[in-house]
Amino acid sequence: MNERIRQLAEQAGLKMPVDTEYNGHIYRHALEKFAKLIVQDCAELFPLTFTDEQYQRRIDKTIKKHFGVDE
Question: What's the DSSP call for residue 49?
Fold first, then answer.
């Protein structure tokens, strides 16, 4: 699981890691998939939109990189 996603899950009150291997595996997989879908959805709000910085970066790619979500 991506470290940032794990940190946010803990901040939300979810206990990490999950104790049981079978249910824990399913739970971790579902949690990570859920988080990646949220990141993807947020990134899609800014397609081909760039920052105002001197060295412009695409916002959608910056969001995905921050959370470790592959394109």
Answer: -
